[in-house]
Design a protein that fits this description.
- The chain has 20 helices and 32 strands.
- It is an alpha+beta fold.
- The strands form 8 sheets. Strands 1, 2, 4, 5, 8, 11, 13, 14 and 15 form a 9-stranded mixed β-sheet that branches.
- Bound molecules: zinc ion.
């Protein structure tokens, strides 16, 4: 991407801003109409000045700042309009000429929060009942300012009667007006606020002096009726993470859990909080919680792995951070891959999953990667380097594309690292020791300590000497057709397939509203009959079926998930009638193996390390 090249010229005049304060007021009373009104007052000095909108968003690993939704921009000084001009190359930069005798400017704009849409924080974030506020969407900052040095004094006006939660320390509140304590731009952007008409905060206990909270905003009061048992799992999660890392890097920790069927579903990490969003009934429907049981553990782990310890390439600008410089994703298999592994391990350790759920999830991950044609052309390393484009890629032909595999394949690789350490040390050491040394240290507030590939290798060698560089490079550069299943095998289990659709598989199918027959006939079908994807090289794809067509009938009978499963269970070739645009086509699929779903079974005679790995450490 081409960058605005004059940054260095403008950097110097803004040094004086260090220690000065920007006043930012956000009026969120129109949140139910998906509009946010922003007004800020910032120090300025006569002459040319450039205002930037945050472009590269921490945790999203890409240039995802939603600049197209910034509207109604007005810059003024003493009530007089100052014309602005957008940079011709950098769409996130606005140039102004500050008149002589001016010491502050007023910058106002509106932000349109999108309607129902996927994506991360720039996806749907508000309903008539709730909203999530991410400050990176609601501020412009002077180019050249150091995000750690630039102080923001923020206020937020919520819709009447709405309650809220955030990690951002509060100075005072009255009615629906919240005044935050002054915070650096870094901290402000790192501290989203969730709010809503149906809102509850649960205390999850303290760990080494730091309190933890679960703030739940939902589209209904019913969705907030969280059982003591479910609350207990999240309390256990706090204890297990503390036992794993041994120290934390936050003053307090806040899960901002947004439950709605009409916002984007994802999790985004911060030092002292996470922005977690799933369906409305996740906390009152056991299968729904089961399908996303790894989510809060994953985002919590990021406070250590991702925020405190961060690949240098994902921290452009170093300690101060920078929102206008490209990120480099090549170590995302550590940032996201290790987090994926640890999040999944913490789910059974905290009771959010039972051991069987964990194994079924691991089997699904192994099967997904072991049946992926795309691994013969794209090495894992490239999925990390190309993350910023792959996040935006469609979900069709995923087994040919091989998308953001540094998540699931991270799970397999870090399991293999864990099992290898346990084997070589005869059970004396494990990956937990690496995490304690690499991510723990001493308790502190938010801090960042960057690393490179060599630091990861050195950290592993300090726990257990081995050719870790050789091991990791082989995994990262491989174009082998088969997935690295060595961790599962070393841990005493193996991947098998049979016709049994497990409770976990059903829960995930129901949550995603799909029928997943990827490992038999080779298709995933959405609720409305659309074929979400085909397995590249699988029976349906070989017969000519493509993703994104509509499945109309199976063997002459109208499509339903049951009709499709029964046709596959006949163990005879099947005819699929599909609608592709305006055209109807029938494909004869030559498959007669019946339903097939992946599972893990014990490899008798080998020690069961997997059960040791997922056992609770705190009782
Ligand atoms: Zn993550």
């Amino acid at each position: 991407m081409v960058r605005f090249a004059t940054l260095a010229l403008f950097a110097l005049p803004w040094v004086f801003l260090h220690g000065q304060t920007v006043k930012l007021s956000v009026d969120a009373t129109d949140a139910p109409r998906r509009l946010f009104h922003v007004h800020s007052t910032m120090p300025a000095k006569a002459g040319p000045m450039t205002l930037l909108y945050p472009e590269w968003i921490p945790g999203e690993h890409g240039p995802t700042g939603p600049i197209a939704n910034v509207v109604g921009l007005r810059v003024e000084s003493g009530g007089k309009r100052i014309p602005w001009k957008r940079d011709a190359v950098n769409m996130f930069a606005f140039h102004i000429d500050v008149p002589a005798g001016t010491s502050t400017i007023d910058v106002a704009f509106d932000f349109i929060s999108p309607p129902e849409s996927d994506g991360f924080t720039s996806g749907a974030s508000a309903t008539t009942e709730l909203a999530v506020i991410n400050f990176n969407q609601l501020l412009l900052y002077p180019e050249g300012a150091q995000p750690d040095g630039l102080q923001y004094q923020a206020t937020l006006k919520a819709p009447d009667g709405w309650r809220y939660g955030t990690a951002l320390p509060i100075a005072r509140e009255s009615g629906n007006q919240i005044e935050f304590q002054p915070a650096s731009m870094t901290t402000l952007i790192d501290s989203p606020v969730s709010m809503g008409a149906h809102y509850r905060t649960f205390e999850l206990g303290t760990a080494q002096g730091a309190p933890h909270y679960l703030h739940v905003a939902a589209d209904s009061d019913r969705a907030l009726e969280v059982s003591p048992e479910v609350q207990g799992h999240f309390k256990q999660l706090v204890k297990e993470a503390d036992a794993l890392f041994g120290a934390h890097h936050y003053r307090s920790y806040h899960f901002l859990y947004t439950l709605s069927d009409h916002v984007a579903h994802f999790g985004l990490e911060h030092h002292e909080s996470s922005d977690d969003r799933t369906g409305e009934r996740t906390l009152i429907k056991p299968d729904s919680l089961r399908a996303s049981g790894y989510l809060l553990p994953h985002e919590f782990v990021h406070s250590w792995n991702g925020k405190y310890r961060r690949p240098a390439g994902l921290a452009p600008g170093g300690k101060d951070g920078k929102y206008d410089a490209p990120m480099k994703g090549e170590l995302l298999w550590v940032y996201e891959g290790l987090t994926n592994y640890l999040g999944e391990v913490l789910a059974p350790r905290s009771g959010l999953w039972n051991p069987e759920d964990y194994r079924e999830s691991l089997a699904a991950t192994a099967a997904e990667l072991d049946n992926e044609y795309g691994r013969t052309w794209r090495p894992l390393e490239d999925t990390a380097v190309a993350a910023q484009v792959l996040y935006e890629a469609g979900g069709d032909y995923e087994t040919l594309r091989r998308s953001t595999d540094f998540y699931p394949e991270g799970t397999l690789i870090w399991l293999e690292v864990d099992a290898t350490i346990r084997q070589l040390s005869n059970g004396a050491k494990s990956l937990d020791d690496f995490c304690r040394a690499f991510h723990g240290g001493t308790n502190s507030g938010p801090a960042m300590n960057t690393y490179e590939f060599a630091d990861v290798v050195a950290g592993l060698n300090a726990v257990q000497p081995y050719d870790w560089a050789g091991f990791l490079n082989a995994r990262l550069k491989s174009t082998e057709a088969r997935a690295p299943l060595g961790g599962i095998e070393k841990a005493g289990w193996k991947l098998v397939y049979d016709g049994v659709r497990s409770e976990f598989w059903k829960a995930v199918e129901e949550e995603r509203k799909v029928a997943n027959l990827m490992y038999s006939i080779g298709i995933v079908v959405k609720e409305d009959g659309t074929i979400g994807d085909v397995r590249y090289g699988g029976p349906a794809q070989k017969a000519g079926v493509t993703p994104a067509v509509k499945l109309i009938a199976v063997n002459g009978r109208q499509y339903t998930p049951v009709a499709l499963r029964e046709a596959v269970d006949r163990k005879r070739p099947a005819d699929l009638l599909v609608k592709n645009g305006e055209f109807y086509q029938t494909f004869h699929v030559d498959y007669s193996g019946g339903e097939r779903y992946p599972h893990l079974v014990r490899e008798e005679g080998k020690p069961d390390l997997l059960s040791k790995i997922i056992a609770a450490k705190v009782h």
